[in-house]
Amino acid sequence: MRFSHPTGPPGPAGATVRRALAPLVATAVLLTGALTGCASPPSFGRDRDTLVVGAEGEIPVLDPQRLSGTVGLRVVDALFDPLIREDLATRTDRAPALRPALATSWKVSPDALTYTLALRENVAFTDGTPFDAASVKLNFDRISVKESPVYDATAAGNMKFLTRWIDRVEVRGPHTVALRLTKPYTGLPRVLTDRRMSLISPAVLRAHAPDDVGLHPVGTGPFRQHRADHGKRVELKRNTAYWGGVPKTPSIIVESVSDPTTLAIAAQTGEVDAILSAGAQQVRQLAGQDTMTVQYPEPANQYFLRLNTRTAPTDNALFRRALNHAVDREAIATLTADQVVPSHGPLPLGNEAYRQAPAETTEPAETTKPTDTTGTGGTGGTGGYAHDPALAKRLIAESGVRTPVTLRLLAPDSGPGFSQATEIMSLIQQDLKKVGVRLDVQYMEFASLVAEEGGGYKNGVHGSFNGWTTGADSGDFLERMFSGELHPPNGVNRGWYRNPAVDTLLDRARAEPGEETRMELYRRAADTIAGDAPWVFLYQDRLPRLLSLKVEGVTAAPSVYIDYTTIRRG
Question: Could you give the CA distance from residue 521 to residue 34 in angstroms, rounded to a whole number?
């Protein structure tokens, strides 16, 4: 008994399908038989203790060091461990505190060039391979040492945001490693929580070709993969030998249900126990009923139109600023029933460097000036880009770009945080049309979008609608997104943005031992980035979860991840 998996974009009818959610869910019981071929809600062959999670897109191949995207990284988080984790048992209004994972402790040298990590003992990967310092080194060799027999160029490119600072990894004992850096990096411990730096069994790395490692996902995590229908469904069984304690849930099924209406019906009828990135329509329909409750973790994140700064006319900074003034972010918030918060710059709420501007700048004479790059502002790019179509038109005229002009953009038709993507893009299309800019939007499934843009935008593609949560609570989020050294294949700066002044500020921040000075440097970099407008800054999603009333053990910590050791279906 399985969900159907529609393929291809919804086209113009996508918004209509989503507006039909309310009557469809109201008749969910009647429709369940039509959707599944069963007279009563199917159980996926599960027993009463099996938890079913609805994934909002295709489940990619589960190679953590090659991944980008929340759907896959959430599954990875159940199978693998990084060296350091965040505290997901405590709700805070800022980045979660760090806690030991495979590393029980870490210390940094006075010059911030060497991190020494003590590793957890008596831990094994779920295939029985011992976890030790040699396994850590082999994982780093895979992504940084070209001479290594397990080296993977694709994984290396994806992990460049981390490995570019690591000169070498030294084994200093069976359970001690040292990371020797090329430059001081005071924020490294939080970067090591990134689920892409999860550790893979050495036996898998040695036995399989790079493209096949993800088909055999073996980590030290609280669960192991039992069965997989790649792209559609993964069945997990708990790791009873898990170092963090036996997980409360015996088994988990992660089922890809790309259509938000179908997913809502599945939650209403009890086929799905959890939607970890629920859309606004799903929340409106299901929260407060007798089956589901809503939880707002509100992690740091950004949703945006990333622009191609190499191709005309989006290579023109004045034109990009104009696009930012043309978009009505408050209308997007209204569309989503205030599930999102308008964003006016690159630093999201919850980022350690975020500081609210005293008041939003609205005077055209101020907003047309180049952003201050001397650091006298220091608000992190949070105060500009009010909705002002008249100013947008004027900036376009000053830019020299002749209108009408057409931009070709890529966009997801669904996916985590994108249940209303087609409707949001329709609003943006309307706003830009008013200033002489037409959007030609190509919709695709979220995993396909990530793959399409992964190598950077090609000439003729002006950008894409996307979002980012991983690492968004850290000040060096700016480096991952905007460093001129992290263009594909060496990073995810897929719009090819580069500003030497920004790179200099990021270099200084990375090495700065004083926390407040470091945060001020990040804010100055954010101010410069905001002025260059390599993105159309859109909004921050509250990223609500819908959980069955039977689900227990999930704290609303500010993260897209959950604690797989405590979640259970009661």
Answer: 57
- Residue 449 and residue 466 in contact, taking contact as beta carbons nearer than 8 Å: yes
Give pLDDT, residue 37: 34
Gap between the Cα atoms of 86 and 190, Å rounded: 8
pTM score, two decimals? 0.80
211 contact partners, CB below 8 Å, separation of at least 6: none
User: How many CB atoms sit inside 10 A of residue 471's CB?
Assistant: 22
Element (H, E) at 285: helix 280-286
Is 96 in contact with 86 (CB distance < 8 Å)?
A: yes
The Cα 421–Cα 474 span in angstroms is: 26
User: Which residue, chain included where needed, has tokens 């460097």?
Assistant: 353
Structure tokens at 90: 């405590």
Contact 437, 389 (CB under 8 A): no
Angle between helices 317-326 and 389-399 (to 10 degrees): 170
End-to-end CA distance of the chain: 23
Q: Are 262 and 414 in contact (CB under 8 A)?
A: no
pLDDT one-digit tens code per residue, 102-161: 999 999 998 889 999 999 999 999 999 999 999 999 999 999 999 999 999 999 999 998
Nearest to 480 by CA among 187, 56, 99: 187
Over the Cα atoms of the chain, what is R_g?
A: 23
DSSP code of residue 542: -
Secondary structure string (H, E, C) spanning 116-166:
EEEECCCCECCCCCECCHHHHHHHHHHHHCCCCCCCCHHHHHHCHHHHCCE
Q: Name the CA dihedral angle for 525, 530, 536, 541, rounded to a multiple of 10 degrees.
A: 60
Phi, psi of 534 (to 5 degrees): -70, -15
Full DSSP string of 41-57: ---TT--TTEEEEEESS
The DSSP code sequence of 210-231 is GGGGGGS---SSSEEEEEEETB
Residue 54 · residue 286 · CB < 8 Å: no
Helix segments in 303-355, DSSP class H: 317-326, 329-335
CA nearest to 255, candidates 280, 276, 285:
276
| Residues 443-476: tens digit of each pLDDT | 998 888 988 999 999 999 999 999 998 889 888 8
Distance of alpha carbon 368 from alpha carbon 394, whole angstroms: 10
